[in-house]
C-alpha cells in the first residue's frame, strides 16, 4: 500500500527536532493525522475507519517537494519490519525495527551528516538502554540505560537480561537462554553483515550480563 496523501498541517515541518522525533516514535499517530482531515468531511471517525481496513504492505509519506518523509511496513494490520524517517535532503534520520506491532531491536537516529546520533535498544517493546554520540567521528558522548545506569554500573546487567533484582537463579537462567536462542549467530547465517554485527553485539552484552549476575548471585 503506497500513498502520498498529505495532512492539512505543514508536513515538511515534521521531524525537525529531537523532541518531535521522539514524540513521533512514541505516538505513531501519523495515520490519524493523514486520514482525519479527509474523514472529517464524512460521518466516519478515524477509529471507525480503521475497523474497515487491514494494512498489509508499505505506507509512504512525502515532503511537499516530493522527497520521501517516512516509510512504514505493515503486515496483517501491524507494523512489521523497519520503519524509516528521512531528512528533507533524503538522508536517513530514524530507523525503528518492528515485530508484529512491537518495537524490538535497536532503534537508531542519525545526524544529517549520516553519522549515528542515538541508539535505543528495545526488547519486546520495552526500552532497555540507549547510547548517544557526538557528530564527529562517531565519538561516544554518553551511554545510559533506561533506568538511568551508566555503562560502568553493574546494575545495568539486569536491564540487559530484562529481569529484576529479585530474580531467582532459575528465572535468570531462563531469561538468558531465551535471549541466546534469539540472538545466537546460527540464526543469522544468511543475514546481512549489519544484522550479524547487531546479533554479535547483543550476544556479547547478554553473556557479559549473565556471567556477572551468576558470579555475584546472592
TrEMBL record:
PROSITE patterns in UniProt: DNAJ_2 (PS50076)
InterPro entries: DjlA_DnaK_co-chaperone, DnaJ_domain, J_dom_sf, MORN_2
Coiled-coil parts of chain: 189-216
Domain J intervals: 156-218
Span of the signal peptide: none
Keywords carried by this UniProt record: Coiled coil
A Pfam family: DnaJ
Keyword Coiled coil: yes
Source superkingdom: Bacteria
Protein name per its UniProtKB record: J domain-containing protein
Taxonomy of the source species: Bacteria, Fusobacteriati, Fusobacteriota, Fusobacteriia, Fusobacteriales
